[in-house]
Design a protein that fits this description.
By secondary structure, this protein is of the alpha+beta class. It has two domains: 48 residues; 160 residues, Jelly Rolls. The chain has two helices and eleven strands. A six-stranded antiparallel sheet has the order 1-3-4-11-6-9, with no helix packed on it. Strands 2-5-10-7-8 form a five-stranded antiparallel sheet, with no helix packed on it.
């Protein structure tokens, strides 16, 4: 049984090693915590007042956006760190985007947190992958979580979030944006089988350890 246990453990390690994208966020600075801009206790405009910081990770293809201190202009996000992003900078709707390396045919999951500026409901933002719509979020008065999936069609995917309804310093706040590959069913099956074998092996070893032999 010891040899089988070792083989199962090795198989699990191989699955994890061969599937690094299982838990890896493809985005750079999806939580907006990179502080190359110097930090702020209120907001830092990107695209109008200031150029894009070197470690920002995002492009700003439409107008301008703000890096905002968490809780400064709306409800604080408990797991939001120090900063969130406002899709509306100075008076006009903005957008952020990143070019991701993807695998054609691979399913990817998008998750993010969102709320309206000052907790105002009714603002919207549109999410797209290579210009194809994959979802729309509508802000409420408290932070919510949005989740959706898309299938990559090429080796690179332009991921973009654009303000829809908003403007005049009122828009959607974003944080904790994650784009990661969804494991294939075969990978999950291998993992479950490996965990099952390890559990069986440990259970058998415990039984052997407590067995009493009488002369």
């Amino acid at each position: 049984m010891g040899r089988k246990l070792l083989l199962a453990s090795a198989a699990l390690i191989a699955v994890f090693a061969a599937s690094p994208a299982m838990a890896a966020n493809l985005l750079t600075n999806g939580n907006f915590e990179n502080t190359g801009f110097g930090g702020t206790t209120s907001y830092y405009n990107v695209g109008l007042d200031h150029a894009i910081p070197s470690d920002f990770g995002w492009s700003v293809p439409i107008n301008n956006v703000d890096i905002v201190a968490n809780g400064q202009y709306g409800p604080a996000l408990s797991n939001g760190g120090n900063y969130v992003l406002d899709l509306v900078g100075y008076g006009s709707t903005g957008a952020i985007s990143q070019l991701l390396t993807t695998t054609p045919g691979q399913l990817y999951r998008i998750t993010l947190n969102y709320v309206g500026n000052s907790g105002t409901p009714g603002f919207t933002a549109n999410i797209s992958a290579n210009s194809a719509p994959v979802g729309t979020i509508t802000s409420g008065s408290t932070w919510n979580t949005f989740t959706t999936t898309f299938t990559a069609t090429s080796g690179s995917t332009l991921f973009q979030i654009s303000e829809g309804i908003g403007g005049g310093n009122g828009g959607v706040f974003l944080d904790n944006i994650d784009v990661s590959a969804v494991p294939e069913p075969a990978t999950w099956a291998m993992m479950l089988a490996g965990f099952g074998m390890i559990g069986f092996g440990l259970r058998s070893r415990r039984k052997q350890a407590v067995r009493v032999t009488y002369a």
